[in-house]
Amino acid sequence: MGQLRRFKDLVIDWEMTPEDAVALYLEWGNNGYRGGYQNAVRSKTDHSNYFVVNTWKTPPTVTLVRRNSDGAEELVELPLPESLARDFVTSVHGHKGVYGVNEPIRQWLEREIFGR
């Protein structure tokens, strides 16, 4: 899975979720979001890099997304390992959707990116 190693120098926002990204970058009047004006998007050069888990697909996938106020770019998409996929789908009660990563998936991603 060396595909993720090329992103080792990318700043990844591990706390960003799909709903937070929409609120921050796409909703009108994002100023004051999550604690104040320091988080407001000031220009089109402001962006976030974050991972999402997509359970609409079989098997579920994890996608690295770069989002700014113009839209989103999918940098890479990978299938989740079977055990992580199974546990994640169970944790969301089998619901289809796009979710932020949980701690086990984050740990796996960090190992894949940084070789830890």
Verbal overview:
- By secondary structure, this protein is α+β, with helices and mostly antiparallel strands.
- The protein has one domain (2-17, 47-114).
- The chain is built from three helices and four strands.
- It has helices at 18-25, 82-91, 103-114, and strands spanning 48-54, 61-68, 71-79, 98-100.
- It has a four-stranded antiparallel beta sheet with strand order 3-2-1-4.
- It is globular.
- It starts with 17 loop residues before the first helix and ends with a helix.
- 17% of the residues are buried.
- The model has no long low-confidence stretch (mean pLDDT 87).
- How many helices in DSSP terms? 3
Structural class: alpha+beta
Counting copies of identical and different chains, the oligomeric state is: single chain
Number of strands: 4
Report the helical percentage: 25-40%
Low-confidence stretches: none
The domain count comes to 1
| Overall body shape | globular
- What is the H/E string? HEEEHEH
Largest sheet: spatial strand order: 3-2-1-4
